[in-house]
């Protein structure tokens, strides 16, 4: 199972559900008495669930350090062996978790064990991510890096568009699917996180984190070095446009919300 730190989770989930929560309507949150958020991380979804649910919402994650950021009830636990008896919750939810698991169907079966009513999974299709930028070449460069990353990663990070089949294979019925596009936009005035992201591009530190995955995805060492060099130049162009307050970037990640009945 892949693990992420709090900074990464905060960046990737920033603004999630800020513009609309319509895609969560199939979860019937207003009727829920007890909800479990599996792989809650720093609690981004947990907070949304608590705002929409009159009952109790519990977060669970395998990393106790991430749970330090979660307000309210949260326990340490593994997605394949949740520390709860059968039928403890009336809804079990996860967001961007199954794409990081080697056996997502087994995890959903465990979700169903501790739920007496339904399971909802919210997963992205990382193959269909789009990037629009005022920096020439940033979109193409991001697409090139993504292509090799997808080929090299050892779990199915494109799972979102096929998540209904995972729930069906796990034995859930009446699966409903809703698509939600999460757009992360950078525009003036720039926040601290935006500036730090640009610095990481210019230094090449961000893409260096994924070096081994990119190499596993078909890049030679020389090709990776060339990609990183172009990535750093792109980062310098971003910083230059930020100085002129002309830089804008929108990354859109399609998520699929799937709800199945026990």
Automatic annotation (TrEMBL):
> Where is the Methyltransferase type domain positioned along the sequence?
36-119
Is Transferase given among the entry's keywords? yes
Q: Which one of the record's GO molecular function terms can you name?
A: S-adenosylmethionine-dependent methyltransferase activity
List the keywords (alphabetical): Methyltransferase, Transferase
Enumerate the Pfam families for this protein. Methyltransf_11
Which organism's genome codes for this protein?
Answer: Halorhabdus utahensis (strain DSM 12940 / JCM 11049 / AX-2)
Q: In its UniProt entry, what is this protein called? A: Methyltransferase type 11
Superkingdom classification of source: Archaea
Give the UniProt record's GO annotations in the biological process aspect. Answer: methylation
Gene3D superfamilies for the chain: Vaccinia Virus protein VP39
Q: Keyword Isomerase on this protein?
A: no
Regions that span the bilayer: none
């Amino acid at each position: 199972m892949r693990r992420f730190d709090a900074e990464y989770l905060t960046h990737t989930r920033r603004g999630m559900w800020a513009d609309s929560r319509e895609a969560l309507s199939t979860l019937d949150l207003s009727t829920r008495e007890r909800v479990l958020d599996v792989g809650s991380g720093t609690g981004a979804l947990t907070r949304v669930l608590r705002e929409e649910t009159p009952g109790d919402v519990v977060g669970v994650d395998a990393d106790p350090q991430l749970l330090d950021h979660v307000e309210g009830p949260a326990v340490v636990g593994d997605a394949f062996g949740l520390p709860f008896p059968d039928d403890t919750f009336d809804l079990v939810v996860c967001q961007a978790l199954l794409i990081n698991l080697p056996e997502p169907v087994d995890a959903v079966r465990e979700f169903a064990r501790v739920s007496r009513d339904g399971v909802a999974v919210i997963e992205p299709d990382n193959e269909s991510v789009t990037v629009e930028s005022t920096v020439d070449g940033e979109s193409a460069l991001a697409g090139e890096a993504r292509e090799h990353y997808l080929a090299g990663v050892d779990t199915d990070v494109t799972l979102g568009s096929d998540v209904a089949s995972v729930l069906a294979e796990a034995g859930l019925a009446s699966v409903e699917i809703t698509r939600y596009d999460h757009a992360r936009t950078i525009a003036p005035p720039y926040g601290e996180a935006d500036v730090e992201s640009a610095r990481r591009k210019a230094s090449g530190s961000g893409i260096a984190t994924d070096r081994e995955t990119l190499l596993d995805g078909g890049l030679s060492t020389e090709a990776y070095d060339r990609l990183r060099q172009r990535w750093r130049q792109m980062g310098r162009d971003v910083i230059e446009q930020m100085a002129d307050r002309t830089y804008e970037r929108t990354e859109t990640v399609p998520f699929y919300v799937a709800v199945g009945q026990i």
